[in-house]
Specification:
This protein is α+β, with helices and mostly antiparallel strands and about 170 residues long. It has a single domain (about 20-165), classed as Aldehyde Oxidoreductase, domain 4. The chain has helices spanning about 10-15, 60-80, 130-135, 135-150, 160-165, and strands spanning about 25-35, 40-50, 110-115. Strands 1-2-3 form a 3-stranded mixed beta sheet. The termini are far apart. The mean pLDDT is about 90.
């Protein structure tokens, strides 16, 4: 019909019948990096993420969500840094023109997959993906830098000057 169709459903009873518990997705991420000892440059060579995020309803969208999160994590690990002016409290470079983020050339081959992990208390078995792809990505990169250099970096981003400053004894 020209006026369209309206469908309404009250899901309050169905939602109230669900088990009252948290439904968290989980993941494990791994990164391989190359560190240039002369310049301090860190390049991520490849990355893998495996996730337990409930029943995956749309595999293409799920994979893209996982990979996008890992790209964001690489950006956080190696590029993104918000610096505040101590006098005013304002951000230096408070626009995207001066804020470094990972570009296409910074992103390696990334693989994302998942294990079958349907939520038994959800009628569809879903948990949700959200930002689970970003959660361990920066830590995976930092861990790979530690394995490559023997130096732990506990402040992000892992900039070349910080790699060079840390040398081998930080």
């Amino acid at each position: 019909p020209p006026e369209g169709v309206t469908v309404r459903s009250n899901t309050a009873e169905a939602l109230g019948a669900l088990a009252q518990k948290e439904r968290h997705a989980f993941g494990a991420q791994f990164a391989e990096v190359a560190v240039d000892p002369a310049t301090g440059e860190v390049r991520v060579r490849r990355m893998l993420g495996i996730f337990a995020a409930g029943r995956i309803v749309n595999p293409l969208t799920a994979r893209n969500q996982f990979v996008g999160g890992m790209i964001w994590g690489i950006s956080m690990a190696l590029h993104e840094e918000a610096v505040r002016d101590p006098a005013s409290g304002g951000l230096y470079g408070a626009d995207l023109a001066g804020y470094h983020v990972a570009a296409h050339a910074d992103i390696p081959h990334i693989e994302a997959d998942w294990v079958d992990d349907p939520d038994p208390d959800d009628p569809v078995g879903i948990k949700g993906i959200g930002e689970v792809g970003i959660v361990g990505a920066a830590a995976a990169v930092a861990n790979a830098v530690w394995h490559a250099t023997g130096v732990r970096h506990r402040d992000l981003p892992i900039r070349p000057d910080r790699v060079l400053l840390a040398g081998g004894d930080a």
